[in-house]
Amino acid sequence: MDRHEDKEALETQGPGRRLADERRRQGLSVVEIGRLIKLAPRQVEALEADDYERLPGNTFVRGFVRNYAKALRLDPEPLLAELEQRLPPERPSAILPHTENIPFSPGHGEGWRRYLLLALLVLLVVPWALYEVYRQQPAAPAAPSPGVALPIVPPSATKPGGTAVAVPERASGAAPASDQAAAPGAGAPVPAPSAAHQAASPAGAPGQASVRLAFKKDSWVEIKDREGKIVFAQLNKGGTEQVVQGVPPLSLVVGNATQVTLEYNGKPVDLAPYTRGEVARLTLE
């Protein structure tokens, strides 16, 4: 009997509630997911509750579900297919009164037609314009795929506010280029390291601190600098690393914190004392 009730509950669960469950699993709050998909918290809550009457219209609801699914790296098509079965009927457009046998004075006929055409034009143009505005808003930034190594960006090339630097892992069997060049001749001088190699050291620009994050599993991270400016915010795939530089103190929010290791200016930081549930919140001086 319990299995039958659980099955019925799963079948009656709408796409909004499924998105809410996945958001909580990834350690994201309503405010954080709203910032990613450009929605107010009240709109996110209405969408997760499958309360479509509180949202602008069916066209916008479809776009909200699609963007929400992409931000969580889910396939939106099954959710959209289920959404079509739950959307309320479109609100009927304004119905014009029946004008048969209603007398009009000859002098006001043209003015009445002009206002009617203007009203019809507004009814057509306004929904289309709103849809275009929502459609052209940028989607959430995609995390890099776990199998692709990204080049190291030297700290000197970062902006004053601090930017994220992706650090790839070198294969255990690969030898440095300088060692390969020196192999043919035992007495050949070792070439000096290039300027690009020297610039890739972990030390940041004067006044900036360095945060290194290694992800065992998927985790969403947001970092703000001393001015409260967001210098890093994205969903990171398991098996990747990120190095972020900014002016301290740095405020961090780390989702799925038990699967993340953190170093601050080369020193390890234990996230356990700052973790509540699956999310760690801390400030690095």
UniProtKB/TrEMBL annotation:
GO terms for molecular function: DNA binding. Residues 1-10 have a biased composition (Basic and acidic residues). Residues 171-207 have a biased composition (Low complexity). This is Helix-turn-helix domain-containing protein. The lineage of its organism: Bacteria, Pseudomonadati, Pseudomonadota, Hydrogenophilia, Hydrogenophilia incertae sedis. Residues 212-283 form the Cytoskeleton protein RodZ-like C-terminal domain. It comes from the Bacteria. InterPro entries: Bact_Cytoskel_RodZ, Lambda_DNA-bd_dom_sf, RodZ-like_C. Residues 1-23, 159-207 are annotated as: Disordered.
